[in-house]
Amino acid sequence: xxxxxxxxxxxxxxxxxxxxxxxxxxxxxxxxxxxxxxxxxxxxxxxxxxxxxxxxxxxxxxxxxxxxxxxxxxxxxxxxxxxxxxxxxxxxxxxxxxxxxxxxxxxxxxxxxxxxxxxxxxxxxxxxxxxxxxxxxxxxxxxxxxxxxxxxxxxxxxxxxxxxxxxxxxxxxxxxxxxxxxxxxxxxxxxxxxxxxxxxxxxxxxxxxxxxxxxxxxxxxxxxxxxxxxxxxxxxxxxxxxxxxxxx
Length: 248
Prior knowledge:
Number of domains: 2
Order of helices and strands: HEHEHEHEEHEHEHEEEH
Shape: elongated
Helix content: 25-40%
Radius of gyration: 20 Å
């Protein structure tokens, strides 16, 4: 059963996901997520990682070889937990919030890193377009380094979401013809659209953008330059500038 949770179909059927490694399972244990089982080596069990409020969690002692067989990692790290996917919650009133709208983010590592970045910079929530990668994909959970247990992430139709929020908040989008990021004054809240890794922001979303920004390269000209920034790196730069202008 554990190995099958690598696949979206079985995560949805079982309502379960995997978290692996000492750091990630420690973050899970500190959260209010319901845990079904923990598979751990003797070393982890004797390490005193289990908080008092989690003593009733079922722990199955396994050998390193057994852990390797069920692990999704190249090098398993002492412990793997199976936890329940929380019930979906509706998007609340977002007036005055900072929201990241992810437009078809498909790479699990990018989504996990974006969740971690949003957590670090105090972004209020993330809305992912329905065709984005599943946030409970093991690679997303791993890349988030535990932030997935804290950051509210909603899935929605991007156009419907923007239509519902029309006029509530400015909508920022990174486009080549936008104003350089460091020169653009942000408002006290807003929706920041992060485009798809390969194709950028969808044509159907561009009409909703009220403020166009761009992240300028350090040097002028295009010779020898990368075509674009990684989606998670671009997110981090934008979030830094937001917090520079509006420290929490």
